[in-house]
Amino acid sequence: MIEVHDLHKAFGEVKAVDGVSFDARDGEITGLLGPNGAGKTTTLRMLYTLMKPDSGQVRVDGIDAAVDPVAVRRRLGVLPDAHGLYKHLTARENIDYFGRLQGMEAALLAERRDALIQALDMADFATRRTEGFSQGQRVKTAIARALVHDPENVLLDEPTNGLDVMATRAMRTFMRKLRDEGRCVLFSSHIMQEVGALCDRIVVIARGRVAADATPDELREKTGEANLEDAFVKIIGSEEGLAA
Question: pTM score, two decimals?
Answer without folding.
Answer: 0.88
